[in-house]
C-alpha cells in the first residue's frame, strides 16, 4: 500500500516557518516544534523542504522578497516620500514584539559560521537596496526627491537606516524615540 500523499499549502507552511524562525531564532527552534507549527510530520517536513537549514534558506529568500516587494510598491505612484516614511515607521512599530528583522537576526545568529546563510542574507539585503534604488529613481524622475541624490549610495543609506531602526527597536527604543532619525533622513531626500 502506497503512503498517503502529504496535503498542505506550501506558501502557508513557509509563512508559519518564517514566523517561527523569526520569533525564536534558528538554533532555539527544534525540528519537531517547527514541523508541529507547520502542521507537518517531521518526515513530511524533510521530504518537502529538505533539511531545517534548507527550509531556513527558503524562508530568508521569502522574507527578503516580501520586504523588497513592499518597497517596490511604494515606488509605483506619486507620494513616494510619504510611502517611504510609512515603510520606515512601520518597521519600528511592527517590531514592538521584539522580533526585529529576520535578515539581521539570521546574520547575527548564523552568518559568522554558515556561508550559505551569509550569502542568503546578503542577497536579501542587496534585493532590498535595489528596490530602494528603484524608489529613488522613480521619485527623482517625478520631482519628489532631490535630483542631485546618487540613487545607489542613497539606497544603501536607506537600507542601513532601515536595518538600524529594526535593531534599535529590538533593543527597546520606541517609535517615538526613533522618529527623529526618520524625519532627518526624509529631509535629506526632499526635492
From TrEMBL:
DNA-binding region, residue intervals: 30-49
Cite the Gene3D superfamilies for this sequence: Homeodomain-like, Tetracycline Repressor, domain 2
UniProt entry tagged with the keyword Magnesium: no
Which spans of this chain does the record mark as coiled coil?
none
| Pfam families xref list | TetR_C_13, TetR_N
Which keywords does this chain's UniProt record carry? DNA-binding, Transcription, Transcription regulation
Q: What is this protein called?
A: HTH-type transcriptional repressor ComR
Gene name of the encoded protein: comR
Amino acid at each position: 500500500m502506497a503512503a498517503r500523499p502529504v496535503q498542505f499549502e506550501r506558501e502557508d507552511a513557509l509563512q508559519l516557518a518564517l514566523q517561527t524562525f523569526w520569533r525564536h531564532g534558528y538554533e532555539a527552534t527544534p525540528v519537531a516544534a517547527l514541523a508541529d507549527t507547520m502542521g507537518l510530520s517531521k518526515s513530511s517536513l524533510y521530504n518537502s523542504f529538505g533539511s531545517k537549514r534548507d527550509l531556513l534558506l527558503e524562508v530568508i529568500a521569502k522574507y527578503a522578497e516580501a520586504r523588497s516587494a513592499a518597497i517596490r510598491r511604494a515606488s509605483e505612484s506619486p507620494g513616494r516620500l510619504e510611502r517611504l516614511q510609512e515603510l520606515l515607521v512601520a518597521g519600528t512599530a511592527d517590531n514592538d514584539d521584539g522580533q526585529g528583522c529576520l535578515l539581521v537576526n539570521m546574520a547575527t545568529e548564523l552568518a559568522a559560521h554558515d556561508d550559505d546563510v551569509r550569502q542568503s542574507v546578503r542577497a536579501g539585503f542587496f534585493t532590498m537596496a535595489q528596490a530602494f534604488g528603484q524608489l529613488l529613481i522613480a521619485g527623482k524622475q517625478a520631482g519628489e526627491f532631490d535630483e542631485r541624490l546618487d540613487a545607489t549610495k542613497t539606497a544603501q543609506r536607506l537600507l542601513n537606516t532601515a536595518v538600524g531602526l529594526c535593531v534599535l527597536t529590538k533593543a527597546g527604543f520606541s517609535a517615538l524615540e526613533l522618529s527623529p532619525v526618520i524625519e532627518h533622513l526624509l529631509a535629506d531626500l526632499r526635492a
